[in-house]
Write a structure and sequence with these properties.
The complex is a heterodimer of chains A (240) and B (219). In chain A, 38% of the residues lie in helices and 25% in strands. With 240 residues, chain A is α/β, with parallel strands linked by helices. In chain A, helix 3 packs across helix 4, helix 3 packs parallel to helix 5 and helix 4 crosses helix 5. With 219 residues, chain B is mainly alpha-helical. In chain B, 79% of the residues lie in helices and 0% in strands. The radius of gyration of chain B is 21 Å and the shape is flat. Chain B starts with 11 loop residues before the first helix and ends with a helix. Classes of the chains: A alpha/beta (240), B mainly alpha (219). At the A-B interface, helix 2, strand 6 and helix 3 of A face helix 5 and helix 6 of B.
Chain lengths: 240, 219
Amino acid sequence: MIDVQALSKKFGNNLVLSDITTSIQKGEVVAIIGPSGSGKSTFLRCLNLLETPSSGTIEINGKNLTSSKKEIHKIRQQIGMVFQHFHLFPHMTVRENLMYAPMKAKGVKKYDAEEKAHQLLERVGLAQKADAYPNSLSGGQKQRVAIARALAMEPELMLFDEPTSALDPEMVKEVLEVMKDLAKSGMTMLVVTHEMGFAREVADRVLFLDHGVLVEEGEPESFFKHPTSERARDFLDKVL
Amino acid sequence: MNLDFSQIVPYIPFMLEGIWVTLKFVFFAIILGSILGTLLALFKIGSVKPLRWFADAYTSIFRGTPLILQLMIIYYSIPQLTGYDISPFLSAILAFGLNSSAYISEIIRAGIQAVDKGQLEAAQALGVPYSAMMKDIILPQALKNILPALMNEFITLTKESAIVSTIGYLDLMRRAQVVGADLFRNFEPLLFVGLIYWCLVMGLTVIGRMVERRLKLSD
């Protein structure tokens, strides 16, 4: 589904991603882990062109991202993204947050968008908050709304950029539960995370990045038990 | 003390009519200034270089020269250059609208740039087209932040509108002068329209507060 070839990204002279090659299958849940500053988020953001790669190619469903800038809106509509800091639209109610993009970007009818919003809010357990404004929600609730907002576009792929890092500890679980549900439903997911427990339990595969290099990838079981690289061992020693 | 307000009583209807005359062109000038100012702000933050240069040059010219000069140039040069006999009313709208758009564009630009970059990214990630994103996501949030500055600009415009009296437009200010010349007493009519200007500005202030409160609803 996603095919990344020799992806590099520079900020000025600073090489943030270097020569990353990997592919992700439909329905796969991939956890991207690594120390801070390793380029995890930048990698994720390249996949929907929030960052423009300096070199290399990204293909999603056979479409080359970097060469189809004109169609980028269409491609992005198939890729949901969840941010560390939610980025809900503060001047819209929760329901409007969910209805806005489907109506504006895909031309979904108001009635259908409302129906869909209701279903999704039910799914993330926030149906009673439909008329609330984001500022009145807790962090965990905001993130669940943000997930629902991304799902409202009916994406084929979901990107999560440290979805629980900005949350108070007691709110992490409710967000992870929603993500687990989503994984079970067969959604293709890429998750940049510091939640090793989640990576271990839910991911089909782990990518370990350090200093912009894809150092190691493998199944969570073997990766967490027997990391092959020195750097991954160091990292796991520190976080586990 | 030689003060006699009873003398201006017969002229009060004449002067009150000036409220409408002043408000009429101030209203259109604010509309013109806001539309043009928004466009210029979008040019300034956009990626098209010639538009950016144009907007910067425009701002520099209209902020860099006196408003009264711009008004005179529009009022006197258009008939001279084109033969079209422009009315004081139209000249006033043009001069004030063009001038305030330069200031408004700076206010809006600052407002847009103060909106959290994450809002833009969230809209982009959802595949929302640029124009819809600006209109529905970025500008409404920018507007909320810049409302006090914007109201300030509208208040300034309302007061400065008095300089259209110099091209013979019969606004509040001009009417006070006419009455003053008629009576050989200037202080009373000037004081009277002064009070009216103050009331107009207070009205604007109240409207601004109301709008601000409405926009705060989501907090």
